[in-house]
Write a structure and sequence with these properties.
- By secondary structure, this protein is an alpha+beta fold.
- The protein contains five helices and six strands.
- Strands 2-1-6-5-3-4 form a six-stranded antiparallel β-sheet.
- The longest helix is centred in the middle third of the chain and has 14 residues.
- About 20% of the residues are buried.
Length: about 160
């Protein structure tokens, strides 16, 4: 089996080498912005729009854009090419990118932490997330409307 290649804070690494510190704010407090895309005919669907929304999410959450953010389109292209042999013939994929604000200042001296905003990306076969869903296209799915409303606008920083 060929191991997939991921991107992490400026480096391409094998998926098994991905490590995020428990002190990173994206883990400890869920403070992160992310996007997920899927491919159609091996092409990322609406990639420019996803990147624009990821940038806007960072701005709304006051997460400084990582230094390499502007390189994201070329990083995605390189990661896609690097993973081509890891996917089987006809295999479609999902891609996920996460932007973290980094480690809290009080933990910044702990070895293995990243004290600045950074991003990581990964790709994996689409079948992992859609396996078993095809029956719903024919059978439908029971839907329940929740009484819980959206997060009020006042709880999200204004642009």
């Amino acid at each position: 089996m060929i191991e997939r290649i991921c991107y992490m804070d400026g480096m391409f690494v094998y998926e098994s080498e991905m490590r995020v510190s428990v002190y990173d704010l994206s883990v400890a407090q869920g403070a992160a912005a992310f996007t997920m895309t899927r491919s159609f005919n091996k092409q990322h669907f609406k990639l420019p729009e996803h990147i624009a929304r990821l940038k806007q999410s960072c701005e709304l959450l006051s997460i400084p854009l990582p230094e390499d953010f502007e390189k994201l389109p070329s990083l995605i292209e390189r990661m896609t090419e690097a993973n081509e042999s890891a996917f089987g013939p006809g295999e479609e994929y999902r891609m996920m990118w996460v932007v973290s604000p980094g480690t809290s200042r009080m933990y910044a001296e702990i070895p293995g932490t990243i004290p600045h905003s950074w991003m990581y990306g990964t790709m994996f076969p689409l079948r992992y997330t859609v396996q078993g869903f095809s029956k719903y296209f024919l059978d439908g799915v029971h839907c329940v409307t929740s009484q819980i409303q959206q997060v009020p606008d006042a709880c999200v920083p204004s642009a």
